[in-house]
């Protein structure tokens, strides 16, 4: 460590670094996907504009001439421009272009001449999350013909549901509440319930709040769950435990019992419940080994709050003296 840096400054930087890593991890995948989707839409617009220019010209050879000229002026390969034009002519309505597929997927799909077959490969690329290489292999191995013989062809566009890993964060920023550095779990819970709307916004879409201190009976003993939610998209209960301290192994054991309780009582159409422990700090390796076979259904995150300033602390101390 640089000797000129105080421990407090070093701690601030560590927090900054950790927060930025979390943002990058959660956001880059979505960003790459968004950028590729913009590329698809951009190429569609280019194809539409070239096609419109072709229609406005009477000469049959005009298309070849304009492609050659555009290739030179835009410094794009002629092959790329021909594929862009072909892409537009196959998908003349932009809303039929699936946002889940990349431009690389569409470069392969435009070479599938049969519309019904192409639609099949589009849908299953989304439904089964086929990579570009996988899509190539499926077309090469005549996957459509196999599915046609087995009568399992479906042209319904699947609803894209988020995975639990996309729903939960590593850090929850609850800067809309102010608590002293040494606060209790009850104080944290009370503050969150007083700002439940902001809590739901920070958790993200799909969360529905059900109850606080939810009682459940396990082995003739009553237990209380801090906060209970239901996730509309994941279709499962979300058990939230608050820890105003560092995570310990007992916390994992605690939510494991709760998961078993809800798992045994879930509706047939629901997926298994998920537990979320929100604490001051934790070690990932400890979570991994403590959760065991339940690790896919147990998530752990840190929380950030606003600490009171010196004036607020002073006023609170004065109130205690009265």
SSE topology:
Elements (H helix, E strand, L loop, with lengths): L6 H49 L6 H13 L3 H13 L12 H7 L5 H13 L4 H9 L2 H7 L14 H4 L3 E8 L6 H9 L2 H8 L3 E12 L2 E11 L4 E11 L2 H15 L10 E8 L2 H8 L6 E9 L3 H12 L1
Parallel strand pairs: 1-6, 4-5, 5-6
Antiparallel strand pairs: 2-3, 3-4
Describe this structure in words.
Helix content is 52%, strand content 18%. With 322 residues, it is α/β, with parallel strands linked by helices. The protein is elongated, with a radius of gyration of 27 Å.
What can be said about this structure in brief?
With 322 residues, this protein is α/β, with parallel strands linked by helices. The chain contains 13 helices and six strands.
Q: Calculate the terminal CA-CA distance, rounded to whole Å.
A: 46 Å
Annotated CATH architecture of the largest domain: 3-Layer(aba) Sandwich
Portion of residues within helices = 40-55%
What is the count of helical runs?
A: 13
* pLDDT averaged over residues: 81
Structural domain tally: 2
Q: Biggest β-sheet: count, sense, barrel?
A: 6 strands, mixed
What labels would you give this structure?
Trna Endonuclease, Chain: A, domain 1; 2 domains; 6 strands; alpha/beta; 322 residues; 13 helices; six-stranded mixed β-sheet
């Amino acid at each position: 460590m640089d000797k000129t840096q105080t421990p407090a400054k070093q701690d601030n930087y560590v927090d900054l670094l950790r927060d930025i890593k979390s943002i990058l991890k959660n956001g880059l995948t979505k960003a790459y996907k968004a950028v590729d989707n913009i590329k698809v839409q951009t190429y569609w617009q280019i194809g539409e504009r070239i096609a419109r220019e072709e229609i406005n010209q009477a000469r049959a050879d005009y298309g070849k001439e304009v492609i050659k000229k555009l290739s030179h002026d835009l410094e794009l390969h002629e092959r790329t421009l021909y594929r862009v034009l072909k892409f537009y002519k196959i998908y003349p309505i932009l809303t039929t272009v699936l946002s889940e597929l990349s431009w690389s997927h569409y470069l392969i799909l435009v070479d599938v001449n049969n519309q019904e077959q192409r639609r099949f490969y589009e849908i299953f690329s989304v439904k089964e999350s086929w990579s570009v290489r996988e899509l190539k292999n499926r077309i090469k191995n005549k996957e459509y013909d196999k599915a046609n013989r087995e009568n399992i062809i479906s042209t319904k566009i699947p609803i894209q549901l988020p995975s639990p890993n996309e729903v939960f964060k590593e850090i929850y920023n609850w800067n809309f509440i102010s608590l002293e550095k040494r606060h209790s779990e009850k104080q944290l819970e009370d503050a969150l319930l007083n700002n439940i709307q902001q809590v739901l916004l920070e958790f993200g879409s799909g969360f529905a709040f059900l109850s606080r201190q939810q009682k459940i009976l396990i082995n003739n003993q009553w237990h209380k769950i801090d906060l209970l939610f239901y996730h509309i998209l994941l279709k499962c209960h979300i058990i939230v435990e608050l820890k105003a301290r560092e995570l310990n192994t007992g916390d994992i054991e605690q939510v494991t019992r709760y998961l078993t309780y809800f798992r045994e009582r879930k509706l047939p159409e629901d997926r298994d419940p998920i537990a979320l422990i929100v604490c001051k700090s934790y070690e990932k390796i400890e979570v991994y080994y403590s959760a065991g076979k339940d690790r896919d259904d147990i998530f752990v995150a840190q929380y950030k709050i606003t600490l009171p300033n010196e004036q607020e602390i002073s006023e609170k101390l004065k109130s205690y003296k009265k």
